[in-house]
Design goal:
single chain, mainly alpha, three-stranded mixed sheet, about 5% strand
Length: about 190
């Protein structure tokens, strides 16, 4: 089997495609709805996603990610901002020849950064759909690849601060359910 770390830009593109579909569900009246992310409503999640996409774009543009969150226009339509940022992000990563990215004092490969971004973007796309009251499973092939990556990227060190404990799930469950369960969400 090929390593999921090969083809990071293509995986990122598929993750963004899935999440753009979830963003179509967002209406103003659901911005206050809770999300699977502890203590965040949908509006807070969308802001976090905007910061994440900005950091991924910074990584590909400059080869460095600062530790300060990006600040966008607070009055701007968050969904429109996210869609625009996502499209620019895909264009930048697809055209990139960036081999390394520095985050704080660490050097990572561009593939690792784009693959970690794909896990985050997809997971939050699932979170958005849930907050909108829609069951929108992650496509099986995308979820299989992301689950392999999530198992590399998310460790006990990340729990309970960044991720809740894994939710027990049958190995016979759909890949998307196994992915979100591993990341502490209830499918």
């Amino acid at each position: 089997m090929t390593s999921p770390l090969i083809g990071g830009a293509e995986l990122l593109e598929r993750a963004v495609g899935y999440t753009l579909g979830s963003l179509l569900l967002v209406k103003p009246e659901v911005l206050g709805h809770p999300t699977p992310c502890r203590a965040w409503d949908l509006k807070a999640l969308l802001r976090h996603m905007n910061d994440s996409l900005a950091a991924l774009h910074e990584a590909v543009d400059s080869g460095h990610v600062g530790l300060e969150a990006a600040t966008g226009d607070p009055a701007a339509d968050l969904v429109a901002q996210l869609k625009d940022r996502a499209c620019h992000l895909i264009g930048a990563w697809t055209a990139s020849t960036r081999s390394t990215v520095s985050i704080a004092d660490r050097q990572l490969t561009g593939a690792i950064v784009s693959c970690a971004g794909a896990v985050e973007i997809t997971t939050h796309g699932w979170d958005v759909a849930r907050a909108c009251g829609v069951d929108r499973p992650v496509p099986d092939d995308l979820a299989e690849e992301l689950l392999q990556l999530a198992e590399l990227f998310v460790t006990d060190h990340d729990r309970p601060d960044r991720f809740a404990a894994p939710v027990p799930m049958s190995c016979l469950a759909r890949p998307g359910d196994r992915l979100v369960a591993f990341l502490g969400r209830i499918p």
